[in-house]
Design goal:
By secondary structure, the chain is an alpha+beta fold. The protein has helices spanning 81-91, 129-141, 215-230, 252-269, 300-321, 335-339, and strands spanning 13-21, 24-32, 38-44, 51-52, 65-66, 68-72, 96-97, 105-106, 111-113, 160-161, 164-165, 167-174, 180-187, 211-212, 241-249, 281-291, 325-327, 330-332, 347-348. The strands form 6 sheets. It has a 6-stranded mixed β-sheet. The chain starts with 12 loop residues before the first strand and ends with a strand.
Length: 349
């Protein structure tokens, strides 16, 4: 039995630290690589990214593996969460060796942030090193292959998708080759995840069977969303983040290609995407447990295709798992609140 999440990739663990209430609506999510690290890469396509250590992932540069990735709320302020993860790794001797003493390491912890400032009511309530440490400790304490908590947790706590509540989602698959691919997303999009004429999530059009809400349900939802949008005149500042992980043995260049094609999964599920006020960023992790078939020069293609598909599916799960939020920082209804569970009173086509 699998978790149907990114933790199905052997050795990969996920931890969340969540703060809500008393002005807070934010958090941190850490993807912890197996001991020894994993090959990593990144592809940034949003016009307003907030990142840390992404240059280290360039295939031309010396760092080959990383021990953790950090996804955080708090905009650029929240990147401080990576410091807490670095400290935790250093205490365990995990990082790039820089001296004769095994304790002399520099953990390389790439990070990316979403904009959620003030959504809990207090603009200064944002993640710090302590919250980052709590997230990595949560990841380390989790059992191998544990299901990934989804919805309004970790970096998805204050996330929104258009005027809907966003959050964290995850999905995985095992390919015919035996290679496992998994994805984790934080959906915090300036664009919409909702097809306006039908109320169907864009990402669900790629799942084969679509449940169309009843007309009266959709009309009520459209009215509610219009009312919420009218009370939220400020332009959205957002970002969708993703991590695509695999147990395939990839070079940094191949991992970079995986991160790039995974953006197609965002483009299927969010419209418009990669705007100037988005910071859309996708990381790739490859643990190297399963070599690609050497006799098949295009063997990477199935991994690339799966990465994009899983990002789409994880976005749908994030939106469906989110719960509504209304407080001093704003109001964001959830998809399930407006439309109900999948198939409830709708027409399946």
């Amino acid at each position: 039995m699998t978790a149907d999440g990114v933790t199905d990739v052997g050795g990969v663990r996920v931890g969340h630290a969540t703060r809500d209430g008393d002005g807070w609506l934010t958090g941190v999510t850490v993807v912890l690589a197996p001991e020894g690290g994993a090959v990593a890469a990144v592809d940034v396509r949003g016009g307003g990214p907030g990142t840390k250590e992404t240059d280290a992932l360039d295939p031309r540069n010396v760092v080959r593996t990383v021990d953790a990735l950090v996804l955080t709320g708090g905009s650029a302020y929240g990147l401080d969460a990576a410091s807490g993860v670095m400290a935790w790794l250093e205490e365990r001797g995990r990082g790039v060796r820089v001296g004769a003493d095994p304790a002399h390491v520099v953990p390389v912890v790439p990070a990316a942030c979403v904009f959620d400032l003030g959504r809990g009511g207090d603009f200064r309530a944002r993640p710090d090193a302590a919250l980052g440490r709590a997230a990595v400790e949560d990841a380390a304490a989790s059992a191998p292959g544990a299901p990934v908590p989804q919805g309004c947790v970790g970096a998805g706590t204050g996330a929104v998708a258009g005027v809907l509540k966003g959050g964290v989602g995850s999905a995985s698959t095992v390919l015919e080759s035996g290679i496992t691919v998994g994805a984790l997303v934080v959906v915090n999009a300036a664009g919409s995840v909702l097809e306006p004429e039908t109320g169907v999530l864009y990402g669900e059009f790629f799942e084969g069977r679509v449940t169309y809400p009843q007309e009266r349900t959709h009309e009520a939802a459209r009215q509610r969303l219009a009312e919420v949008a009218a009370r939220s005149p400020e332009p959205p500042l957002n970002t969708t983040l993703a991590v695509v992980a695999t147990d395939a043995e990839l070079t940094k260049a191949q991992a970079r290609k995986l991160a790039g094609t995974a953006h197609d999964g965002i483009a299927r599920a969010v419209r418009p995407v990669h705007l100037l006020h988005d910071g859309d960023t996708v990381f790739a992790l490859a643990t190297g447990a399963r070599p690609l078939a050497p006799e098949q020069p295009l063997a990477l293609n199935e991994v690339l295709a799966a990465g994009a598909d899983l990002v789409t599916r994880a976005i749908v799960r994030a939106v469906r798992a989110a719960r509504p939020v209304a407080g001093p920082g704003g109001e964001w209804p959830s998809y399930e609140e407006l439309y109900g569970a999948r198939g409830a009173g709708g027409v399946v086509r």
